[in-house]
Amino acid sequence: MFKVENLHFTYPKNKDETIKGISFEISKGEIFGFLGPSGAGKSTTQKILIKLLDQYKGAIYYNNQNIAEINDSFFESIGVSFEMPIHFSKMTAMENINFFLKLYKKNNDIEKLMKRVGLWEDKDKMVSEYSKGMKIRLNFVRAMLNSPEMLFLDEPTNGLDPTNAMILKDMIKEFKKDGGTVFITSHIMSDIDQLCDRVAFVVDGQIKEMDTPRNLKLKYGKRTMKLEYKENGKTVIEEFPMDGIGQNQTFLNLLQTKDIETLHSGETTLEDIFIHVTGVGLNHE
Ligand SMILES: Nc1ncnc2c1ncn2[C@@H]1O[C@H](COP(=O)(O)OP(=O)(O)OP(=O)(O)O)[C@@H](O)[C@H]1O
């Protein structure tokens, strides 16, 4: 569906390259996460992919067509939601939608979308009266206006309360179920974990790691079992190697004789992997 080959990009005013040879492919129906520390080049890549920036080196294909050679049909078939919502604040939400709807040949079911994100009741309110979370939800509706085949989402749940974030994530999953393809950036690792089929970690304009969240967890996870049990009123914690765990008599004895509180494998989180791969902690603004 989407193929990026050896992408390089330098901002005209800069000396150094921002994107230093990125390659990846996204299959139809796949949700692909693009993760990395601030300044790694995520937004720059996204802007190149949606043809906001040109003068890059390398090639980008959408449905086997070089995007440099596709005309308006490209914009007809993609939906974009940037982190900072941009709407006409002196117009109502519905007026905003109607304005943008006219730009497209294909239109989605607006009432259904607005009801789903919980904005139907407030559709005639001025956007200036909308809260930050409402603007973000309206932004998502805008990305879906033309019933796109592929979505580009930059931090789509950032600034939403857990309930609204869950609704948006469910909508993204439904979009995928209906055959849609998604390119997504986020700092919220649990969202990425729940949504993405594959993720790429980008550091300083290069992809450092790319795989399914499960494979990454297996690769970076500690192969251990951690056991917590009660003894003389105190909690004791012991760790055992996963290999040969079924024959480990000490471990088996504890299981049979102790009052077990918890038992889990040393699976690592995407957050741990992020810090390991990028060498940079997550910023949760
Ligand atoms: N218009 C521009 N002109 C020159 N340099 C830019 C421009 N936009 C971004 N940069 C630089 O390019 C690099 C990558 O920025 P980019 O916005 O792509 O990072 P990011 O990974 O999206 O970061 P964040 O997570 O903070 O949004 C940074 O060093 C940034 O200063």
SS-based structural class?
Answer: alpha/beta
DSSP strand (E) fraction?
25-35%
Residue stretches low in confidence (pLDDT < 50, at least 5 long) are: none
Choose one word for the global shape.
Answer: globular
Question: Could you describe the 3D structure shown?
Answer:
- With 285 residues, the chain is α/β, with parallel strands linked by helices.
- It is 32% helix and 27% strand.
- The strands form 3 sheets. It has a 6-stranded mixed β-sheet, sandwiched between helices. The chain has a 4-stranded antiparallel β-sheet with strand order 2-1-4-5, with helices on one face.
- A hairpin with a 2-residue loop joins strand 11 and strand 12.
- The longest helix has 16 residues.
- The mean pLDDT is 91.
- Keywords: ATP-binding, Nucleotide-binding, Transport.
SSE layout and pairings?
Elements: E1 2-9, E2 19-26, E3 31-35, H1 42-49, E4 57-62, E5 65-66, H2 73-77, E6 78-81, H3 93-101, H4 110-116, H5 132-144, E7 150-154, H6 162-177, E8 181-185, H7 189-195, E9 198-203, E10 206-211, H8 213-220, E11 224-231, E12 234-241, H9 249-257, E13 259-265, H10 270-278
Key words describing this protein structure:
six-stranded mixed β-sheet, Rossmann fold, alpha/beta, globular, four-stranded antiparallel β-sheet, 32% helix, 2 domains, binds adenosine-5'-triphosphate, 285 residues, nucleotide-binding, ABC transporter ATP-binding protein
Short description:
With 285 residues, the chain is an alpha/beta fold.
